[in-house]
Amino acid sequence: MTERRHDREFVRTFFTSPTAVEGEDDSAKMLRRAAGLRGMQAPDVWVPDNEDATAPSMRDEGAENIVEVISEHGSEFPGEIHPRMVWHRDSPGTRYQGFQHMLDITDPERGAVEHIDGFVIPEVGGIDDWKKADEFFTIVENEHGLEEGSLAMSVIIESGEAELAMGDLRDEMGKPTNNLERLFLLVDGEVDYTKDMRAMTPTGELPAWPELRHNTSRGASAAGCIAVDGPYDDIRDVEGYRERMTENQAKGMLGIWSLTPGQVVEANTSPLPPKTGSWLLDAGGEEVELASEDGAEVYDGDRLSLEATDDGYELRVGGDTRELTADELREELLGLTSYVPSMDDIVDSMEEFEAAKEAGRGAIAMTQSATLRIGGTEIDIAKDRMWDEATYQAAMTPISLFQDVYEHRPDQHEELAERYGAGVVERAMEVGL
Fold first, then answer.
1. Could you list the residue range(s) of the whole structural domain that residue 137 is in?
2. How confident is the model at residue 217 (pLDDT cuts 50, 70, 90)?
3. Among 54, 57, 79, 315, which lies 20 to 30 A Cα-Cα from 420?
4. What average pLDDT score do residues 369-397 get?
């Protein structure tokens, strides 16, 4: 993995707010509300959105509102602040307007720039367009006496051109002709991407675009940036949002766009290890989380049943019934079960491997065991997993994320201690160092 170039190694949440609301006594009210978010409701990256979330006729006022609100509240906001400017690969006038707004917002005399970490640029095209945006950042920095590269640039991948441009980043970054090392987030924008691709579905809903999410995650990893998924606009579908994040996390995309403070809470907690471990059982094609009762992991559904017989056991899965010995049953159940480790479990395993490594051992076996109770019948199962250095490094990702969150988000310390316990938090901050 290429080394990150910014303070944050992980970004869980990308939260946008309109910069000016038409027809309100205070057009900046949504900015003021977002600036007051704290704890798990506050995003890692707050994006005052002077593009799609703000009407074109209100964008000049929106730029003024950004200055007013951030100069007043930016020092207290616990996350990073990256306003989104207008930009378009095919419109010089739009690019110029965004540039002028950047110049106004970053004027040191106005007091906002010291709290602004960067800007988000939408609707980029090929790599030459990315370099145009980067050059505007450099001009802004020089115009106001800011250090070159001090303003991070995040882009929204909303076209096939932009998707292909991610493959050019490794060759372009680091050349003396650009400052593309300032790149921070690569954010998917599936709505405009769908329009650009001229895609359609029978229901009119957006395609899932798993390929885009994979390509953005891969492009971010190769270029030392951070990948963030686009908005999930069914804000009442909490389960769907969680499923989307789980799919993304398996691709290495740990961040997601959040449209409401409620989505921010879900996205802030989703990539963190769970408080307690849990066993999952594949019950006839449906994955079920087992309930822990009196030292056993219990399944009480009707898709799977287990009975002891004189010769062994009878296991029914769906319409299939099998007679099995105890060893055969254990083997079968090991194939149907999996374990989701808690934070405490992960830290335990990492500490055990670190101790083994200090003792000169390169690999050790970690055992997971449980008593399963299915339909009143119990059986013990155990599985061994070999841990070597590669396994250890892979397990480090959720711990590294936790450490990054704990370092950069002190406003979340109390909630994290409540979630895991102070002892587990302390141990998690020590492993891997």
1. 13-269
2. very high
3. 79
4. 92
CB 381 within 8 A of CB 330: yes
Q: State how far the alpha carbon of 106 is from the alpha carbons of 55, 194, 386, in Å.
A: 22, 33, 53
Token digits for 281? 């059982």
Q: Do 379 and 333 meet the contact criterion of CB atoms below 8 Å apart?
A: yes
Question: From start to end of 336-431, where are the E strands?
Answer: 337-340, 364-374, 377-387
Determine the average pLDDT of the residues in 167-190: 95
Q: Say if 351 falls within a structural domain.
A: yes
Helix (H, G, I), strand (E, B) or coil at 18: strand
Q: Which helix (H) or strand (E) holds 314?
A: strand 313-317
* Bridge-based pairing state of the strands 255-258 and 226-229: parallel
pLDDT tens by residue, 224-262: 999 999 999 899 999 999 999 999 999 999 999 999 999
Asked if 76 and 55 sit in the same domain, the reply is yes
Closest of 148, 230, 223, 144 to residue 187, by C-alpha: 230
Q: For the residues 87-96, what does the mean pLDDT come to? A: 97
Q: Which of 83, 101, 84, 95 is CA-nearest to residue 128? A: 95
Q: Are 36 and 17 in contact (CB under 8 A)?
A: no
Q: What is the pLDDT of residue 8?
A: 92
- 49 CB contacts (<8 Å, ≥6 apart)? 16, 17, 18, 19, 83, 84
Lowest mean pLDDT segment, chosen from 108-117, 135-144, 382-391: 382-391
220 alpha-carbon distance from chain centroid: 13
| Phi/psi at 222 (5° precision) | -70, -30
Q: Please report the pLDDT score of residue 5 as a whole number.
A: 67
426 domain residue, yes or no: no
Set 128, 171, 388, 404: catalytic member: 388
Determine the Cα–Cα distance for residues 321 and 319; give it in Å rounded to an integer: 7
Average pLDDT of 207-231?
96
Looking at the fold, whether 231 and 322 belong to one and the same domain comes out as no
Give the whole-angstrom CA distance, residue 247 versus residue 38: 27
Q: How many helices (H) and strands (E) does the chain have?
A: 15, 18
Bridge-based pairing of strands 278-283 and 255-258 is unpaired
DSSP state of 114: G
Q: Are residues 197 and 289 in the same domain?
A: no
The helix or strand, by DSSP H or E, that contains position 313, with its residue range, turns out to be strand 313-317
Whether pTM > 0.70 for this model: the answer is: yes
Active site residue 49: no
